[in-house]
Amino acid sequence: MHDLVHDLACSVAGNECAIVQVKNSMSIPNISHRLLFECGYNICVLTDPKPSRRVNHLRTLLVLGSQYFSIPRNAWVQFMFLRVLDLNWVNVTTEMLVSISRLKHLRYLELSIFEIRALPESICTLHHLQTLKLSGCYKLEELPRDMSKMTSLRHLDISEYDKLTHTPANMGELKFLQTLPIFIVGKDSGCGIRELQGLNLGGELTIRNLENVMCVANAQEANLKHKPNLRKLHFSWGRDIDLQLEGNVEQTLEGLQPHPNLKRLTVEEYMGVRFPHWMCSSLLPNLIEVSVINCRRCEQLPLVSRSPFIKVLVIQGMYALKSIDNHFSGGDDVTEGFQSLKELSLIDMPNLEWSVFNGREVLLPHLDKLTVSGCPKLTMLPCLPSLKKLKLTDGYEMLLDSVANLTSLSSLEVEGFKELRSLPDGLFENHTHLLSLEIKECPKLESVSRELGNLAALRSLIIYGCHELALLPEELQNLTSLRRLSIDRCNGLTSLRLQGLSSLRSLFIQWCESLTSLIGGLQHLTASQSLKINICPELAYLPEGMQHLTSLRRLRIRSCQKLTCFPEGLRHVTTLEDLSIGGMTPPEWIGNLSSLRRLEFIGSDKLTCLPSGLQLLTNLQQLQIWDWPCLTALPEWIGNLSSLRYLEISYCRKLECLPSGLQLLSLKIRCCPQLEKRCEKEKGEDWHYISHIPYICIQKDCRHHFSLKTYLCFIINLRISTGKLFTNNMFGNFIKYYIIKTLFTS
Fold first, then answer.
1. How far apart are CA 308 and CA 281, in angstroms?
2. 3-state secondary structure of 717
3. How far lies 27's CA from each of 37, 42, 99, 484, in Å?
């Protein structure tokens, strides 16, 4: 919205509504009907509103952008006349939900409940509520049992989450319900599919556990054929094949015929041998997207996939499908099939072949995006004159040979080619329009062709998990348009040339255990805004020229054990806003980095105090200190950093006290046993220094956890000593466990 239009709207609204930008605790302003809090990422604590006419007249309360917004429990009673309450991205607690349940006049309620597994039954007392929208509910497993009593409910939005175990009974009694994204068919009374019969549903609907529908008559009771407002349907069965076969699964799907207005259809875990007759273009003329997932016994695609109007087609896990020649193209009438198809995905079909074209080359004239994954018998690609995006996963080198002819490509992703040692000759010879190239999980790849230098338009290059790759070609310097370069988990890579990359904005290097040098200096990277180097234990020095990085905003250097000194040229990079360093001694001139807003120190074994130059960082907003075992105290001048709002201290076991004068919004203390005692709520000697801080998180002594530095060193040493690599799943699970259990528990 233009500022002039915004000012005009505020002027016309007068005292009817207000937009308040919140920085800390505050009281309600003097407005009549609508109030919007813009919290950004700040902690917002609304002070107790006193009973007043202005609060009683408030009808709309919106809170945007803060997970830490809170209202005292005894203050909710003053909002009894609210009609609209939007707490999206506020971490709503069970206690807050109980208080909200007392707002009997609510019509619209939007909530984020990150940690809650079940909504309280008290929500069902909101008899006038028309819209209930739940976002961020990643752990939600259960809705209230008595939701059928919310007779005014029109819209129940829970579309993003799949952990719900059942749908409340008697949902069919909600006669005004128009939005119900998920319905889980149960066996108990009031939980069957006939609950959908009288509901005038629209938008999208997923019906799960269809194995509990035992015959075609039961399926027809859902009355989907007479629901013209439904645009997206997802039919899903459980994975108990025996239970499906006990019922007549083919008749069940036959009875679920939707209205012709349907635009998107997904059939998942269907164990029938053939698809129903209604899955054809004549009965679904408006269908534009079809997904067939894990229908393992079907030997042919549904007729509707041949519709000339289909734009998106996903075929996954059809183990019995052996060919996509005549069946795929619609028999002899090829010209009528797939004329509009834009996106095609072929995933996890071990018996699929694509080798017969009946003399006709262009089956997919307008295809824009193609994904082929886990189809080992697909050895070639057809003529695809319009293809822009191609992703090939878990295939063989022969499949790559046909990529050279796809000269219209702008994005190419090659992943999981386990036996690939080198890219085919000519692969990059004619790809003048290629903008993005990703090569992932090719563990035996030893080299990349010099033809890489022909990709003059390339903007993004990502190489991940290519453990035998020792060197990138010198022609890398010809990529003058390259903006992003990411090299991750390439353990054989010994050096990397950087000259010529004058357009590079982001450089990311991680887990390259043999990398010893960056060749060519950094003076060429004048456009670089982000530089991240993590877990490169053999990298002993950074090249000169860092003072020329005049656009640099973010710098990360972590777990590079042989890098012990700050690069001297960094002192001249006054544009730096975000700095994270591990294992290096911070210099006194760090105060020259006047634009710094976020600073993170990790793992300094010998240092006992922070560098005094930090007190010159007047713009610093966030300070994190990790694993300083010899740090005993923070200097008093920390309290003089006027912009500092977020302070996090972890694994500083000898740290005994905090300075006074901290004007913070958030304080996090983890695994600092001395500090924990002094900061204990109401009892600790330093509690009076921090009691005014809105958000305080103190994690008790982590005696059963590694420090971050010890943990990473353990992983690196184990990998090197055994000569074996963790699989991605193993490593990911290690990291995920560590982060969840150690970093984000309180």
1. 8
2. helix
3. 11, 16, 19, 46
d(CA 395, CA 378): 8
Output the furthest CA–CA distance in the chain (Å, rounded): 85
pLDDT at 281: 84
Is the CB of residue 123 less than 8 Å from the CB of residue 146? Answer: no
User: What separation in angstroms does the CA of 618 have from each of 25, 596, 639, 642, 690?
Assistant: 23, 8, 11, 6, 21
- What is the arithmetic mean of pLDDT over 529-556? 93
Return the structure tokens found at 468: 């035998």
**Residues 701 and 730: beta-carbon distance below 8 Å:** no
Instruction: With H, G, I as helix, E, B as strand and everything else as coil, classify residue 646.
Output: strand
- Determine the 3-state secondary structure of 518 from DSSP: strand
The residue to which tokens 């090939």 are assigned? 392
What's the CA gap between 324 and 303, in Å, rounded? Answer: 13
DSSP string, 697-710: EEEPP-TTS--HHH
Mean pLDDT of 674-682: 89
Place of tokens 């807003």: 597
Sequence-ordered alpha helix ranges (H) in 14-150? 53-56, 94-100
Contacts of 282 (CB under 8 A, 6+ apart): none
pTM greater than 0.90: no
Separation of CA 90 from chain center: 18
Residue 693: CB atoms within 10 A of its CB come to 17
603 — alpha (psi -120 to 50), left (phi > 0) or beta? left
Q: Which amino acid is at 100?
A: I
Q: Which two tokens stand for residue 351?
A: 């018996």
Distance between CA atoms of residues 372 and 392, nearest Å: 5
CA angle, 73 as apex, 70 and 78 as ends, to 5°? 95
Q: Which residues contact 191 (CB under 8 A, 6 or more apart)?
A: 166, 167, 169, 184, 185
**Residue 166 identity:** H
The alpha helices in 28-172, defined as continuous H runs, are: 53-56, 94-100
Beta strands in 369-470 (DSSP E): 369-373, 389-393, 411-415, 436-440, 460-464
Q: Are 380 and 355 in contact (CB under 8 A)?
A: yes
Residue 372's Cα: distance from chain center in Å? 23
Q: Is 635 exposed, middle or buried (0-12, 13-18, 19+ CB in 10 A)?
A: middle
Mean pLDDT of the chain: 83
DSSP letter, residue 508: E
Q: Which residues pair with 156 in a beta bridge?
A: 132
Please report where in the chains the tokens 């919290």 appear, as a residue. Answer: 39
Return the structure tokens found at 429: 């010879």
Contact 417, 439 (CB under 8 A): no
pLDDT at 18: 58
Query: What tokens appear for 483 in the block?
Result: 């903006």
Which ranges of 147-204 does DSSP label H, i.e. alpha helix? none
Count of C-beta atoms within a 10 Å radius of residue 301: 21
Q: Please state, as a whole number, how many other Cβ atoms lie within 10 Å of the Cβ of residue 355.
A: 12
Name the burial class of residue 175, with classes exposed (0-12), middle (13-18) and buried (19+) by CB atoms within 10 angstroms of its CB.
exposed
- Reported as type and span, the H/E element at residue 674 is helix 673-678
Q: Which of 152, 178, 182 is nearest to 167 (CA)?
A: 182
| Pair of tokens at residue 561 | 């054990």
Checking if the pLDDT of 268 tops 60, the result is yes
Count of Cβ atoms closer than 10 Å to residue 519 Cβ:
11
* Both structure tokens of 35: 């109030």
Cα torsion for 698, 701, 702, 703, to the nearest 10°? 180
Helix (H, G, I), strand (E, B) or coil at 76: helix
Contact between 609 and 630 under an 8 Å Cβ cutoff? The reply is no
Average pLDDT over residues 242-264: 85
Looking up tokens 């000759």, which residue turns up?
A: 425
Find out whether 680 and 687 touch, Cβ atoms under 8 Å: yes
